[in-house]
Amino acid sequence: xxxxxxxxxxxxxxxxxxxxxxxxxxxxxxxxxxxxxxxxxxxxxxxxxxxxxxxxxxxxxxxxxxxxxxxxxxxxxxxxxxxxxxxxxxxxxxxxxxxxxxxxxxxxxxxxxxxxxxxxxxxxxxxxxxxxxxxxxxxxxxxxxxxxxxxxxxxxxxxxxxxxxxxxxxxxxxxxxxxxxxxxxxxxxxxxxxxxxxxxxxxxxxxxxxxxxxxxxxxxxxxxxxxxxxxxxxxxxxxxxxxxxxxxxxxxxxxxxxxxxxxxxxxxxxxxxxxxxxxxxxxxxxxxxxxxxxxxxxxxxxxxxxxxxxxxxxxxxxxxxxxxxxxxxxxxxxxxxxxxxxxxxxxxxxxxxxxxxxxxxxxxxxxxxxxxxxxxxxxxxxxxxxxxxxxxxxxxxxxxxxxxxxxxxxxxxxxxxxxxxxxxxxxxxxxxxxxxxxxxxxxxxxxxxxxxxxxxxxxxxxxxxxxxxxxxxxxxxxxxxxxxxxxxxxxx
Length: 492
Ligand code: ATP
Ligand code: MG
Ligand code: MG
Ligand code: MG
Prior knowledge:
Blueprint: H1 5-20, E1 23-24, H2 49-53, E2 67-75, E3 77-78, E4 81-82, E5 96-105, H3 110-124, E6 132-137, H4 149-157, E7 165-168, H5 170-173, E8 174-176, E9 181-192, E10 210-223, E11 229-242, H6 243-250, H7 263-272, H8 290-309, H9 318-337, H10 349-356, H11 362-365, H12 367-399, E12 405-406, H13 408-418, H14 422-430, E13 435-436, H15 438-453, H16 461-473
Parallel strand pairs: 1-2, 6-7, 12-13
Antiparallel strand pairs: 2-5, 3-4, 5-11, 6-9, 8-9, 9-10, 10-11
Helix pairs in contact: 3-4, 7-8, 8-9, 8-12, 9-12, 13-15, 15-16
This protein binds adenosine-5'-triphosphate and magnesium ion (3 copies).
């Protein structure tokens, strides 16, 4: 018997509510309330931060929360958690996803949390335990943190085989809310899609064959301003499981895009496209890049719908700018790679509402508004996209065939004057075997921003930031890179 995504979500909530007396709390909107450190809500625990920080109003309802369960709309497309670059390239990172979570605020701790999770996965959902791996915190000598042996023992007592319990360090198995505040070891559950003999080597290795599904965080310390760790008087549990990944497992698929959360969308996309249907190719096999385009459009239309429904519109700074970038990427992949007509992107919104509207009714009530906003923004972008395409063509003609380095000044102009996101420029160039010298681009950007600052207040902070980041991991600056001077519109 196959689990529909609706059943999977329902079962998670019911399990914690009915069997373990958790209170069901609705998802918060994806726009963070009163938390300037966040662009988007990126985890289930965001709305419970005041409880964990001890700053909750004692008269508020939240002050009484001890055991809570929910399914939270999350966006990871900017700030500390930014999975935008992975979307479409892999089959298990989305910009929008749903995080199923259960919490204990000063109530149960490690033993109960692990046993609830194990029971749910293996008994209720029926996942074979020989497809699961668990990780635990290995300790960290530099920070004076001990190994989380307690958790290893708990997994053993639940019947997990010793060779399926793997230690990892700070990066994967120690969670901190921020520079200061609650923190502690975590234990994660990973699913082996291949039933492989050496699958344990693929845990936390960014492989589609062994995918992390559930993170259980045990908050037991507080990081103080002087960096020392103080044991918390009250320990808490914060867990998060990606619904899309879980549904993939339960529907016996290898890709989130092959589940009922995405297949209706992929068909709707195909209806508007002039290319063959989605076939699930990835990486090198996806030479025409059409499958990646299908995934990007399907991912991005979910994010756009959810964000707009929650009042985040495409715009010029912060989360709005991120959303504008997502919209432009979606339009570009849909119209150029999949050859869809204008208006096709907005026409997908009812399908998103059909898939997710039961869980998030605002998608039903806001369908028309979401479509209008997408259409307006699409029209604007399509006209500049045409202009940009012409600029790239003309520049390439002038460059000659002995270089693959695209002039940074032109790239910057595309970005600054025509509003092209930097990652979109990269993609358009990559398709023609070209790249911008990132160091050069950063210099041009810095110079131009300085010059423009006085007359233009709306500096594109986020894109500047991503430029700096691209520069850090990007093409090293070479002194013999060609220097072009090009002014937009110089020939028409
Ligand atoms: P990964 O290592 O795969 O990037 P993560 O360690 O960053 O995941 P957590 O912050 O631990 O993820 O979030 C809890 C759970 O949320 C993960 O175990 C995973 O199931 C899910 N999840 C995280 N990021 C995404 C994403 N971009 N798309 C879909 N699901 C995600
Ligand atoms: Mg991640
Ligand atoms: Mg991880
Ligand atoms: Mg994790």
